[in-house]
Amino acid sequence: MTKHLKYDTEFKARAIKLVEDSDKSVAEIANDLGIRTSCLYSWLKKARQPEEVKAAMSHLSKQEKEIKELKRELRIVKEERDILKKAVGYFAKPPQ
């Protein structure tokens, strides 16, 4: 199982600047920084996107977070509903 590391934006920006200013290959810079080459290529791709694309992606990210939260809330409400259904069935039984 791989562990996903989170790098701050400053680290990413410096890594991208190194690629743009250096004569070294992306693979060499990634190796020097101790990160995967594919990770650095991903950062470069995002950095070179037009601002309109970045804004749209940010908007989608916000929507994805909202959808995830709504799904979580729905799951909780369904669990509560099921518990209440069982409770109604239990209390609706005539006493013996």
Automatic annotation (TrEMBL):
Any coiled-coil regions, as ranges: 53-87
Sequence intervals crossing the membrane: none
SUPFAM superfamilies given in the database record: Homeodomain-like (SSF46689)
UniProt KW keywords: Coiled coil
InterPro entries documented for this protein: Homeodomain-like_sf, Transposase_8
Stored Gene3D superfamilies: Homeodomain-like
Family, as annotated: Belongs to the transposase 8 family.
Name of the protein described by the UniProt record: Transposase
Organism: Piscirickettsia litoralis
Organism ancestry: Bacteria, Pseudomonadati, Pseudomonadota, Gammaproteobacteria, Thiotrichales
